[in-house]
Amino acid sequence: MSGSIALALLGGGGTSATTDSAAALTALRRASAAGAQAKGVEAKAKEASVKLALTRFTEGISRAKDVETALRDPRVSAVLLPALGLPDAVDSPGLAVRALTSNPADPKSVAARLSDTRWKAAAATLKLSSRGMDALRDPAIQKKLIEGYTSYQWRVSKDEEAAGISDALYFEQRMATGKAPSAYEVLGDAVLRRVVTGALGLPQSLAIQEVSTQARAITSRLDLSKLTDPKQAAKLAERYVMAANSAGSGSSSLLSLFG
User: Fold this and answer.
1) What is the domain range of residue 142?
2) Which domain of life is it from (predicted)?
3) Which of 118, 159, 197, 235 sits 20 to 30 Å CA-CA off 107?
């Protein structure tokens, strides 16, 4: 794998235009405030574009003859993959089919062998390897996917206020599960990787190093076990957003306040 490809796959995705760090910090705190997500998601669910996408999603599922047909249908993948935390895979239907139809409990399966652990989590959620189309037509699964997609759309909309907010919100929600990730789990999740390495100021070129080297670069700078503390998780998320919006003249002094 070339260095450029590794960076594209592991280093992170694009974000919106940057604003100044202080404004970005305010925007993140506003989005992270108690009740903000519930209110925002409720409003997002009423938008015509979201309603249309969800209608097309359910139509695609109802008309699919099998799982592969469903996963290759743009109407389905446009909702299902973002809902499962894999928005960057919408244009990779072949990978989605291979990973999501494999058994995540099998260490030799595609989902289990991919370095991006989001695939394994998604496959475990859907259970397509054992349930097939019954899973996609399950009202409970569809409800979860619809909620996940709407939440994703809300998070992404926050990037219009400042770069990196959607990543930071994803990170905070992941840490709120109460399970601290290992360095390898961080490296295996494209969004967690962006947030942690960005907050720590690690260069994107780190992605072309050996995985063990990347892991040491993280653990030597950050005690991941502390991220189960909401305050510590919020602190790192804020540092990431400020770094993503560091064009402002006051960014370095603001970042210094976060250790």
Assistant:
1) 35-161
2) Bacteria
3) 197
**pLDDT bucket at 248, cuts 50 / 70 / 90:** very low
Query: Counting Cβ atoms within 10 Å, is residue 57 exposed (0-12), middle (13-18) or buried (19+)?
Result: buried
Residue 107 in this model has a pLDDT that exceeds 60: yes
Percent of the chain with pLDDT over 90: 86
CA distance readout (Å), 167 to 28, 64, 258: 10, 32, 18
What distance in Å separates the CA atoms of residue 153 and residue 45, rounded to the nearest whole number? 9
Q: pLDDT for 142-193, tens place per residue? A: 999 999 999 999 999 999 999 999 999 999 999 999 999 999 999 999 999 9
Same domain, 143 and 216: no
- Please choose, from the candidates 14, 167, 161, 140, the residue with its C-alpha nearest in 3D space to the C-alpha of residue 85: 167
Q: Locate 143 and state its tokens.
A: 């409800």
Query: Could you give the residue ranges of the DSSP H alpha helices within 45-137?
Result: 48-63, 67-71, 74-83, 93-100, 110-113, 118-126, 128-131, 133-137
Q: Per-residue b/e over 98-117, b at no fewer than 16 CB within 10 Å?
A: bbbbbbbeeeebbbbebebb
Is 3 in the same domain as 54? no
Residues 199, 221, single domain; the answer is yes
Q: Is residue 30 part of a domain?
A: no
Cα separation, 81 vs 152, in Å, equals 10
